[in-house]
Design goal:
This protein is α+β, with helices and mostly antiparallel strands. Helix content is 48%, strand content 19%. The strands form two sheets. Strands 5, 6, 7, 8 and 9 form a five-stranded antiparallel β-sheet that branches. The protein is elongated.
Length: 427
């Protein structure tokens, strides 16, 4: 095989490939036999028809394409390995000349990853504000637990208070028209922790059981439903029940309900330990984020549109899946936001992701940062323990889904790169 390499603009490489006539003929004959085994040709059993009959039945073009489909992956793999090409996407065949008795000639193009100029990535210094929990953090956690284990008691002898639970019927209108999904019967609302429209819960205070009334609210200017943004609305309300929270005492009995604690002091110590660990994790995440941003921002790279568009398509699919999981129709999102606006925003995010990947990949290449077998097996053991299974089960799942192993390898590589950068820079 002869290969001529020509560097074109925008990180594109042109390949002129020539494969010996004998090799091309062998692949052509193999392709002919494979096709004959899958087509019904009158007068012949499958796989027994002569080449001339198969050519007449399916045409030489189909046989050539079949031969190229089997031949080219190995050809490209050898070329990419020999020249150490780092590809953006699969090679594309521009043209070919496939005549039996003559060398097979192919013109193909490869789009390579762009060159990355790292600039400084070691000895960098960044400053970040240290994260600290508020002084009353333990008290807040304890109050949250009291809320969680509070019991509800019916109220019959007073109006609603701002920390009550109300059970109500409601129906909303905008411009005299019912709001889609804006009504319910016997809906339970915590007035002290309402996620309704601002001003809604406040107008339910000082109301009695059985009382019917109208409240007026205004939808936020940034509301998710385009048709309701900034609109004035009226809601017809009927209070069916009032309930009050009865909070448990902050004592040993509460601690025993929460978990394996014998006393409230043990519970407080556990919360304190949790808060300390969460503070350390938050500060570690802040440090990594600030350091990576500084290193990546000062790196220089011209990213091909093909890479950005490919990543943007992945992001678009992620958004569609997220909307579907939330029960939101994708067509509705397109109507509200506009396809062009969504796409441009995703391209911006895609460009950031691609640059991150290219810069970190270049650091890994320069510093020879890799994922070892020990890294991989240790992470598999951790995953197995997390899901209460064994390593054999995890490896079996990977064999069925190769993308799973690839994703895990990329995750571990990212971890090793970040670890290297944290050790060689200062926060």
């Amino acid at each position: 095989m002869k290969v001529s390499v020509e560097n074109l603009e925008n990180n594109v490489v042109k390949l002129d490939i020539e494969i010996e006539a004998e090799t091309a003929a062998q692949e052509y004959n193999k392709a002919c036999r494979r096709i004959s085994e899958h087509v019904n040709i009158h007068g012949f059993r499958k796989g027994k028809a002569p080449r001339a009959v198969v050519e007449k039945y399916v045409g030489p073009d189909r046989i050539q394409r079949e031969a190229l489909d089997r031949l080219l992956p190995n050809v490209f793999a050898d070329i990419i390995s020999e020249h150490q090409f780092d590809l953006v996407s699969e090679p594309t065949v521009e043209s070919y000349n496939f005549e039996l008795g003559q060398p097979l000639t192919i013109v193909a193009k490869l789009e390579l990853k762009p060159e990355v100029k790292l600039n400084q990535y070691k000895g960098v210094e960044v400053e970040i504000p240290e994260f600290k929990h508020p002084e009353d953090a333990i008290e807040r956690e304890l109050n949250a637990l009291r809320e969680r284990f509070a019991r509800l008691e019916p109220v019959v002898d007073r109006p609603t208070k701002d920390d009550d639970i109300v059970v109500m019927d409601f129906a909303g209108e905008v411009d005299g028209e019912p709001i889609k999904g804006g009504s319910a019967k016997n809906y339970q609302l915590d007035l002290g922790n309402s996620t309704f429209i601002p001003g809604f819960a406040e107008q339910l205070v000082d109301k009695n059981i059985g009382e019917e009334f109208t409240i007026k609210v205004t939808f936020p200017a940034e509301y998710h439903d385009e048709t309701l943004k900034g609109k004035d609305a009226e809601f017809q309300i009927k209070i069916n029940e009032i309930k009050q929270k009865v909070m448990p005492e902050l004592d040993d009995e509460l601690a025993k309900k929460v978990g394996p604690f014998n006393s409230i002091e043990e519970l407080k110590a556990d919360i304190s330990s949790y808060l300390e660990k969460s503070k350390e994790l938050e500060n570690e995440n802040r440090a990594q984020k600030a350091l990576l941003e500084k290193i990546i921002d000062q790196a220089e790279v011209e990213i091909p549109d093909a890479m950005v568009n490919k990543e943007a398509k992945v992001l678009m699919e992620e958004v569609q899946q997220k909307m579907k999981a939330q029960g939101i129709a994708w067509e509705q999102v397109l109507d509200q936001e506009g396809h062009e606006n969504i796409w441009n925003n995703l391209r911006d995010e895609a460009a950031k992701r691609v640059k991150n990947s290219l810069v970190l990949g270049e650091i890994a290449k320069v510093e020879n940062i890799k994922v070892t077998d020990e890294d991989f097996t240790q992470r598999v053991s951790e995953i197995a323990a997390m899901y209460n299974t064994d390593e054999k089960t995890i490896y079996k799942q990977m064999s069925k889904n190769p993308g799973m192993a690839q994703a895990l390898t990329q995750q571990l590589l990212g971890h090793n790169i970040t670890k290297f950068l944290m050790e060689n820079n200062k926060v």
